[in-house]
Amino acid sequence: MAAQIYGLIATFETVPDVYHAAQKVRDAGYRNWDCISPTPIHGMDGAMGLKRSIVPRISLAGGITGFCTGMLLIWYADAFTYPLVVGGKPYFSPMFAFPVSYELTILFTAFATIGGMFLVNRLPMHYHPVLKYDKIPRGMSDTFFIVIETRDPRFNAANTKALLEQVGGKDIKELEA
C-alpha cells in the first residue's frame, strides 16, 4: 500500500532565499503552506500573505467579559444578596466594584488568550508529518524550509515541485502523512 503524501518540502540556505521564495509561493496562489525557520524573520508574515491573527480580538472579548462579570457580581451581591446601607452609601458603586472587576478582567483575558491561541493554532497537535523528515532538526539551527501541503487547491506534484525548484529550493522531497 502506497503511503499518503502530506506535501512537498524544499530546503533554503539563507534568510533572503526563503523570504523571496515565500513571496513567489504566495504570488503563485498557494494557501496551505508554511515556512520553517530557526529564528523569527522580520516581515515573513507579509511575505507569506498572512492576515493579522484574531487572538487579540478574542483576548479583548475575554477582558470585557471579565470586567462586566466583576461589575455584575458586585452589583448583584450588594443590591440583592446582602443589601446593606453603610454610612448612607448606595447599594452599588463602580468605585467599590473596580478591584474585583480589574482582577477578573486580567483573569478572563489570560484564559481567553490561551484558549484563542489553542483554537487558532489547532493545538494540541501531538504529531505533525513534517517531523518525519530526516533533516528537520537542521530547521532548528541553520536551515530554512518551505512546506506546501497536498490539501492546497493549487497543489499538483509536478507543478509544485517545478515552482519550488524555480524559486531556489534544494533537496525537494515528498513528505508522508
Structure in words:
The chain has a four-stranded antiparallel beta sheet with strand order 2-3-1-4. It has two domains: 5-52 and 125-176, no CATH class; 55-120, no CATH class. It contains five helices and four strands, in the order E-H-E-H-H-H-E-H-E. The chain starts with a strand and ends with a strand. The chain has 177 residues and is of the alpha+beta class. It has helices at 15-27, 44-48, 55-81, 94-120, 157-166; strands spanning 5-12, 33-36, 144-149, 170-176.
In short:
The chain has 177 residues and is of the alpha+beta class.
Blueprint of the fold:
Layout: E1 5-12, H1 15-27, E2 33-36, H2 44-48, H3 55-81, H4 94-120, E3 144-149, H5 157-166, E4 170-176
Antiparallel strand pairs: 1-3, 1-4, 2-3
Helix pairs in contact: 3-4
Provide key terms for this protein.
single chain; 177 residues; alpha+beta; 2 domains; four-stranded antiparallel sheet
Q: Report strand %.
A: 5-15%
Give the neighbour order of strands across the main sheet: 2-3-1-4
Average pLDDT number: 93
**How many DSSP helices?**
5
Total strands: 4
When the domains are counted, the total is: 2
Radius of gyration: 25 Å
| Low-pLDDT segments, ≥5 res | none
Class from secondary-structure proportions: alpha+beta
Q: Please write the string of helix (H) and strand (E) elements.
A: EHEHHHEHE
Largest sheet: 4 strands, antiparallel
CA-CA gap between termini: 13 Å
Q: What's the helical proportion of residues? A: 40-55%
